[in-house]
User: Fold this.
Amino acid sequence: MIYLELFLIFMKIGAFTFGGGYAMLPLIQEEVAAHGWLTDEELIDFIAVSESTPGPFAVNVSTYVGMETGGLAGAFCATLGVVLPSFLIILIVAKCYERFQKSKMVQGCMSGLKPAVIGLIGAAIISTGQTVLFPNGIALSSLLTVPFLISLLIFLTMLVLALKKIHPILIIVLSGAVGILVGCF
Assistant:
């Protein structure tokens, strides 16, 4: 049954991913590909949409995958699956905050998880970048294509704006507008 499968898979993703939505991306990509629910291109497209819509990234992606796979009930099951572990863990942590805060074991665990989260986010960036910029594999000829050069220009422009501390909402709006303009021509 697809609904139970969506719930259990996204519950596993929610339970074993620390660091937020971007850290979940490698697991989501792996599971979606393993089940044939979406192509890499479809997932990448929705990642872009998810970034420019309100709400938590992981919730947006899980809801989309669930909707594409099992309709409204699938969206509900996938979304519930991805948020339930965090919800339960936060309830437990909030209840025992004082004891957790001073525990050497918990502090050590968090020290070990931080680099792993950075690594997972980096893996998601590399995987997503490769799919977007080099869909046919990395080759010298792909560095000279118009889509690659336009993508590189957009990326560098947005990076400069981010480093200049331009508000992220403005960067998202500008990215969407530039993408629309480039897509129309």
